[in-house]
Amino acid sequence: MRALWHSIGMLTEAEYYYYGLYDDSRFSAADKARFIGLEAQNRILTQCTDRMWWGLLHDKLVFQHVLQGDGIAMPRIEATYHRTRTFPGAVSLPTQDDLARFLRADARYPLFGKPFDGMFSVGSARFDGYDGRTDRVSLHAGDPVPVAALTQELTRYAARGYLFQEVKHPEDTLRAMCGDRLACLRVVVMLDGDRPEVFRALLKVPTGAHVADNFWRKGNMLANVDIGTGRIIRVVTGVGPDHREVDRHPDTGQVMVDRTIPRWDAVTRLCLDLAPRFPWIRMQAWDIAVCPEGPVVVEANVLGDFNLPQLATGAGILDGRFARFLRASGYSDRTKLAKAADLVVPAPMRRLVGALRLALH
């Protein structure tokens, strides 16, 4: 553990157990050295991307303005809850009273809600309908909530903003496999100059009562997707001692391994077309939903969380391609250049340590 902390990936003790690196039957010393921790990820984030571009991806209203203006398919924004910020074609809800009136009379249910600048799906919820007899809004997960209580809860997001968007449904093959909620593809694209290439791909799979596909939600799964064919190679759930491979979805009973993601070529074409529009973010993580009408952009992230592809593949991401990305991006770290197997890979960065605690909670 001490050696890995002082090496390329800057893995903490918690991450050592999170990735199961204590299992020498699965990981050689070289294998372990390829894993990147949150500390290293944050250094890469700050050194290898331009901060001025972060807001274009992370502010959901700005991001949708940019892409929707080019006719890119995205979930339609139905309403915005903020004192001043609005969106074309969406209902503006500047006050708590406006929000209550919308939920009671104007909302076209079902709706999916999330903060303008939310991450890790914190604050996200699906609202399925309104019962005027009880003055309650029904949630996809949980008991119906009185409108007064719901609007009071959402005031915590009023200053930063909260949006309501249409609920999108998965393509028939994915619906049969994962249920009627979005299991989004995470497609990681790297830019070499103006030339984009897909680096990793995985499917984030919700289970149980979860409406969001984030892996930190207990029971959710990750599927490693072959970037050339769209075939699901491996499916996992859990972390640390609870990490295991599975082959079926627990709710539908459908086999997932060896299935091919529908419209995979269209998904990769879309991501490769979009990536050069953000040239100073040299590594982008696109969340794409495959819907009956085709691929739909849900959001994009700067770098994306490295734990997802590392868990999905069961291997660290410090390969030759990633090493070239670091060198081309001018990355430097607190250690000397180090060799990982046949690689010469520079070292790491820092990140939201709270995110790991959230993932392990």
Features:
361 residues; alpha+beta; D-amino Acid Aminotransferase, Chain A, domain 1; 3 domains; 7-stranded mixed β-sheet; globular
Q: List segments where confidence is low: pLDDT < 50 over at least 5 consecutive residues.
A: 335-361
> What's the CATH H-level superfamily name of the largest domain?
ATP-grasp fold, B domain
Quaternary structure type: single chain
Q: Roughly what fraction of the amino acids lie in strands?
A: 15-25%
Descriptive account of the structure:
By secondary structure, this protein is an alpha+beta fold. It has 3 domains: 1-49 and 326-361, no CATH class; 51-59 and 169-302, D-amino Acid Aminotransferase, Chain A, domain 1; 76-166, no CATH class. Helix content is 28%, strand content 24%. It contains 13 helices and 16 strands. The chain has helices at 2-5, 13-18, 29-33, 38-48, 54-58, 60-68, 96-106, 147-154, 172-178, 264-274, 307-313, 320-328, 353-360; strands spanning 77-81, 91-93, 111-115, 125-131, 136-139, 145-146, 162-166, 185-192, 195-205, 221-225, 232-237, 244-246, 283-291, 294-302, 338-340, 343-345. The chain has a 7-stranded mixed beta sheet, with helices on one face. A 7-stranded antiparallel beta sheet has the order 12-11-10-9-8-13-14, with helices on both faces. A two-stranded antiparallel sheet has the order 15-16. Strand 4 (125-131) and strand 5 form a beta hairpin. Helix 7 packs across helix 8 (147-154). 38% of the residues are buried. Residues 335-361 have low confidence and may be disordered.
